[in-house]
Amino acid sequence: MYTVAAYIMDKRYDAMNSITLNIPVEPMKEYINEKRKEGVAISHMALILAAYVRTIAEYPSLNHFVVNKRIYARNEIAVGMVVLVGGKMDHGTMAKMYFEPTDDVFTVQKKIDDFVDENRKVPEKNGTEKMIKILLSVPGLVNFGVGVFKKLDKHGLLPKKVIDMSPFHTSFLISNLASIRTNHIYHHCYEFGTTSVAITMGNQREVAKRKGGEIVFEKCIPLGVVMDERICSGSYFALAFRKFRRYLEDPTLLEGPPKVVNTELTKNKRGKYVLKKQKPEEIHPETTDENEEITL
Q1: Dist CA 32 CA 83 (whole Å)
Q2: Average pLDDT, the chain
Q3: pTM of the model
Q4: In order of start, what are the domains of the chain with their CATH numbers?
């Protein structure tokens, strides 16, 4: 069904599914405290980003996107994130970070630190801010320019320089709303660009669960996840996010290189990326027993 979904739902906003993932705080807290004793600072954001990057490494279809009714495989892992500039609540800049499928939690943390420092100290060097400044420099240019960008993007003709500056052309968007004491939301995936997944982190909360015949309350970080359902099947999404959750329940799995990296793309003799022929087990690296329930 999802192979023709892009023709039935030709707009990204018509194909958005949403779910809340309640991620237990205690395993992450214990890991962060243990690393702090070793003199290593790890944030909740780094754990979540590292877990998702590692999930993409195993489930590369999460890194697909749809443009003009066609499904494409992305050749990079780009993440869009908002950074508050100068500590001002009403002044934020949005840019993107780049990761490799082999990045572990320590590499991810360093990239986050460098990204935040660079965009807070020198926001005018941010490619997104540069593009906005140019579009606003001449009356009427922003309306005309954005219209041209949308047309070019639809037909795959948008210049790479613009794509590199655009925070709308990413593997996924992430926003830490807990940093401004806000609950998680279901953030839309932009119609313009190629973002297929949006994740927001909200205030910690207690979630009821059954344990040993009793109802107990577990402190969790709620993640609001919005997905473009056209990029892969629902069962694939379920398996991927189950693995994502497993990484966060045992963050030590995020140390060192990943055990599995499934690559969909390879370079041909001309240096261009092409789809690599895959075995069934590479497309669905983890399977379940037919009687096993897929839970998130």
Answers
A1: 22
A2: 85
A3: 0.83
A4: 2-85+95-113+169-283 (3.30.559.10)
